[in-house]
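Appendix B. Extra example for self-study. Work through it before the problem class; the solution is given directly after the inputs so you can check yourself.
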Amino acid sequence: MHYDTGGPRRSNSTSQGIGVQSTPYRTAVWEHTARDIMARVKAYVLGLDFGTNSARALIVDPVNGKEIATAVANYPSGQAGIILDRRDPSVARQHPDDWLSSMVKCTKDALKKAKAVKGFKPEGIVGIGVDATASTPLPVDEQGAPLVRQKKFAKNTNALAWLWKDHTSFAEAGEITAAAAREHPEYLAKCGGTYSSEWFWSKALHCIRVAPEVMKAAAAWVEQSDFIPAVITGNKNPAQWKHNVCAAGHKGMYHASWGLPAADFLDRIDPALGDLRRRGTYERAYPSNERAGVLCPEWAAKMGLPAGIPVAVGAIDAHLGAVGAGVKPGSLAKILGTSSCDMMIHPNTSPLPDIPGLCGIVDGSIVPGYFGLEAGQSAVGDIFNWFVNYFDAGEKAHVKLAQEASKLKPGESGLLALDWNNGNRTILVDPRLTGLLVGQTLHTTRAEVYRALIEGSAMGARVIMERLEEYGVKVEEVINCGGIAEKSPLVMQIYADVTGRPMKISRSAQTCALGAAIFGAVVAGSAAGGYDSVEAAQTRMCGLKPKVYNPDAKRHEVHNELFRLYRQLHDAFGTTTYKDSLHNVMKDLLAIREEARGIA
Amino acid sequence: MHYDTGGPRRSNSTSQGIGVQSTPYRTAVWEHTARDIMARVKAYVLGLDFGTNSARALIVDPVNGKEIATAVANYPSGQAGIILDRRDPSVARQHPDDWLSSMVKCTKDALKKAKAVKGFKPEGIVGIGVDATASTPLPVDEQGAPLVRQKKFAKNTNALAWLWKDHTSFAEAGEITAAAAREHPEYLAKCGGTYSSEWFWSKALHCIRVAPEVMKAAAAWVEQSDFIPAVITGNKNPAQWKHNVCAAGHKGMYHASWGLPAADFLDRIDPALGDLRRRGTYERAYPSNERAGVLCPEWAAKMGLPAGIPVAVGAIDAHLGAVGAGVKPGSLAKILGTSSCDMMIHPNTSPLPDIPGLCGIVDGSIVPGYFGLEAGQSAVGDIFNWFVNYFDAGEKAHVKLAQEASKLKPGESGLLALDWNNGNRTILVDPRLTGLLVGQTLHTTRAEVYRALIEGSAMGARVIMERLEEYGVKVEEVINCGGIAEKSPLVMQIYADVTGRPMKISRSAQTCALGAAIFGAVVAGSAAGGYDSVEAAQTRMCGLKPKVYNPDAKRHEVHNELFRLYRQLHDAFGTTTYKDSLHNVMKDLLAIREEARGIA
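Solution. Structure tokens for the complete assembly:
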């Protein structure tokens, strides 16, 4: 046996199963069977990562973090798994059954690959962790089944899951922000001062407004990151689910001291919202070192695993990405994908001010015992992909454009871009902002625009770092992970040059899934071949690549000049700081657009 | 004989030849020969139009304006006839011999085609008019030959012609503006309050600064529109050329009351500039109803024409375009090509205030007896072409994009563009402005951007109209001409919808060449089958197409909202009107760019 059994035995590792009171599968039989098997086979952990377009399964050796097998399955519906509305680009929905079918597929594929590894057996999986996007809520019935499965809601896009990037509820976000500012400023203080249209209550309220029949029929309005663990642990009573503190705290205005927002406060926004709070939500949320339950026979069979494996409480993908990247105090973990999530942790014993514009400071949302700090950019890879898909017909366009763009010097194009094609998450928390490109001449090339979009993205990243440091959270290292960090030396070098900081890359190419696997190891506990703390697991399972992108002093200097202009545009279009600000421009354009499209 | 011999005989029609004192070809022999022939063959007139990328010859029946033959020849050098500098996109030069070889080619081609028309004979050409771009100056030697023909200047791009769209001299333009504002505000008052880098003295000063050896070797620094008539009339003494008031007045700060700017004023800017004024310029300029001379045997032979045909004093292409469009008081003639020129005339007997931002108000520059008003946009077709060439690889991209864009409703894209990719000519007179696009989402399409660029262009056009009317010049009709007016119903409809005015289209597809032909008819005079006034010629030779693009009230209303935002961005980036203006942004980006490219 090679796996680590060291460290104190975690006394509550079995009692955690008891949290799942309602499941009919919580019998000792499987657990005993599982333990029995574990004694005979090498322990592994499984991370299940639900991204924006696909699900991923990752099987990891907890001893050294070695990723022995991984598989991805794309969500089958809509455009890359997203159900759009041609009339309204703010709409982004998802079918919950896509998650489940993709999960089954990628888990089986990963198991198949893992079986080629000597000593691996599915019975060796000692723990499962789950991460998902957020806030991606969906309406479910009394059994926790998606409402959209019912015949009468099958064609109703409002009964689907509302993907995080759905921005239809911007008006409701404004309403909730205003109400909270009046009555409960403490709710806002913990989530950056502005409640976002990407979040739980805005979406619920918009659903109440546009599809009251959906919300009326819903027994609960639940996060994807609670839904998945509940499904696979066979927990068919949403009132008994172990809801995760990560989504609750960052997206739902949950705080340990007050729970979710008060029902009477929500009543005054809309009685239906107060009603939802009373009958379709919960009182307490949990970190991911707690078990949601154990894998139930039904899903164990579907996935090709033994029943009874402990399943961790879910969390948001990016937060577990930070865990997988090896985040520790002083590290900024940047998860660079379609959007970016910029995560830090700060000891919960040390004082921390509220930081305007952050998407939340939540105790235990990343690593138990630490405040989890979330910031991010609403679109990163999405912007580069948009440009390539809409403005370049050629094959291998990213490669070709990156080659040309890498030959350009900073400032050489005369271009400057605001990276707001999908709004601005941090520090402006404003989905009603749009992209901007300035400096075009008659000679401006595609590659120049491509580079300007990357530079704009890097400047957006720099704004976030500066905001964190302004409030006393020192950024001592930056660890990048996600597809872009892996695949684009150009982007990484520009990030280094723009921010003036070395860019490190996480060793794992799938840190979110690795983070989930780490929590799989933690809910397994050291006795079963896992760990008793996240830190212990990270020490063994995380690492960095040898390649570090260091900033070039001369290029950084030019970028400082460009950044001054970026900041000027940022403040002119994004704030009301300036006199005669242009704060209205993008918003008015969107209002005119909606009028033109008949969706005002 | 079908041609009109009516109207009073013009008493000075022959005496005008005397203006060309120096030409050895001004003998009565050819004129008599020519008249003799004219008595026997049907009269036609020839317009020679020198555009940015090509020369065009147009043979017209003066009786009814029927264009019996036309031919175009592209300038052979550089990129579409423009010699660029890869390091510095501000550079745009041209080889003067390209003009001449293309002129010979297209004239011969047109004559060949005309010969298919019954009754046409080259001997029937009774007058030639010439238009060219401006300010497109070039250094010439004592014989008026381009300096670049000399071996030692053959590789020196500063010895080429400096095309109007060369913006390298923006710093010198600022210097001249500042000096004139201090010492001679009257110089500026007639050219919009700001002296442009597109103009004669800025370019001369920049040439003095970057290539003093060129200016030292130059006997004169002459406009293309003076050079061509001088060449074809065989006038080999630049000091004796009949310089045109159109380029002089609009681009050279010439005014009948003071001539060109005073040498001592230029001395204080740079002694070499004062020196140039003294030895390489002229005292008096003439309108195009005057003869520059008559076609000399050398060029007559090359072009396939009889010698002795009267040649009108040159003029700027757009100004003659307005003549060919049938401009009269109250008409705005828009010449829509790579850039736009927006021309009006106003009786010189009626008072007219100075209008800030206009490229000049010059007595006789368009039609003798009227002030010629010039405004314009530095890039129109150039922007659409830039987008198609750099961002769309497909064939027939304009057609495809226009089809898609025409399906979009105003405001539907949420996009707004500033049409400044080549700077702003009117009303900001600022080459150091650049393009801007705002409102991009992750769903923004190519066609949406294409339409936004057209809308931005239309809004730029509207700013000009509003400025003219603000100063009492009522725009009663808009006549469009040029390639875009001919070819793009989408652009014309958007112009109508944005401005709220009907867009009429000139009957002629080549109004600049037609305007030149009209002056050919005027210098021929009625006795020779031409006319004795521009108005008389226009009445017979100009017309409109039946199709008028009328504004749609609903679309206009949406465009009014968008225009309010356009104006807000226009003023924020283009002026210092606003507090906390963004006036620095585009300029700083250009400065950083030049620093990066090592051309600061």
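Self-check: Chain B touches chain A through 57 residues (CB under 8 Å). If your reasoning did not lead you there, revisit section 3.
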